Amino acid sequence: MGTTTSYALRYPEPTDTPNIPRDLKNLADDVDSKIVVVPVGYSMEYDYGASSIPSWALLQYGQAVSRSGYPALAALASAASYPHGSGDGSTTFNIADKRGRFSAGKDDMGGTAASRITAAISGTAGTVLGAAVGNEGVTLATAQMPSHDHSAATNWQSADHTHDANTSGQSADHSHGLPDPGHTHNIRYNNGNYDWGAPAATDQPNGANIGTWGAGTGIYTGGVNQNHLHGLTTAGFNQNHYHNHIAQGGGGAHLNQQPTIIVNRIVRAL
Q: For residue 248, how many C-alpha atoms fall within 13 Å in the half-sphere facing its CB?
């Protein structure tokens, strides 16, 4: 009995007694044990058309297939608790749906999780066989945005200036935004000085009626004063103003797709 050089496959020598059943069995056993072949359940890429895939393979698009038609593959699916779906629960089971997806190693292969795909970040634990995670695009929430500042010049600060309010001639009990009680308006006369004595009628400015004066007090008790202005200084800042601030961004999803080439994905089923 001879053997081949590379795989040590047994074959009969011319001097051997012919035994066809034994020799064929030896050859079959040697092929199974020594030649690496694609095992049932093995998934791979296929660069060409779906109509040209090998007869022993199935496309992987999540379809239900017969348990009796693919017994070896069905046994593997059953032993793994049907990670891609149990079909109708009795006569069928589901193939993995790998349309538009890459594959990643189970996160806890060997018994210890690497925590590279976690439910906390991806939404699905990478320790679950057959789990599907990830999206083509991602829309950031506010909490996911990097910490940053927005600075903007308002250009709305006002220089010191005066807002004049015309009292329209009414002095006592008139309004400067709010009702104003009777108050003192000193009369300037006698070469620019204020007189705190009792003014004479000739000292009244412009003939205006200033009401009743108490002798020696200069206290105004009522009456109509001539039109005048009350100045309000803003001390450098304008009241009731706005700060312009422009925010940019559309809030749409950003691309989350790595460079990719599209192929068919098949699994050995027979």
A: 1
For residue range 196-222, list pLDDT tens digits in order.
Answer: 444 444 444 444 444 444 444 444 444
Is the distance from CB of 10 to CB of 45 less than 8 angstroms? Answer: no
Which H or E run includes 162?
strand 162-166
Enumerate residues 6+ apart whose C-beta is below 8 A from 189: 195, 199, 203, 205
Residue 75 CB contacts under 8 Å (≥ 6 apart), including other chains:
none
The rounded distance, in Å, linking the Cα atoms of 214 and 199 is 9
The pair phi, psi for residue 109, each rounded to 5°, is: -60, 135
Element (H, E) at 3: strand 2-3
Strand partners, 254: 138
Report the C-alpha gap between 236 and 26 in whole angstroms.
104
Angle at 67 between CA 65 and CA 69, to 5 degrees: 80
Is this model's pTM higher than 0.85 or not?
A: no
Question: Where would I find the beta strands (DSSP E) of 56-120?
Answer: 57-59, 64-66, 92-94
Q: What is the rounded CA–CA span in Å between residue 183 and residue 167?
A: 13
**How far, in Å, are 52, 161, 164, 268 from residue 55 at the CA level?**
9, 91, 95, 9
Distance, first Cα to last Cα, the chain: 32
Residue closest to 228 by CA, chosen among 144, 168, 150, 161: 168
Any idea which residue has 């593959």 for tokens?
Answer: 73
pLDDT per residue over 73-117, tens digit each?
A: 999 999 999 999 999 999 999 999 999 999 999 999 999 999 999
Residue with tokens 């010049």: 153
Q: Residue 93's CB: how many other CB atoms inside 10 A?
A: 22
pLDDT tens for 155-176 read 555 555 555 554 444 444 444 4
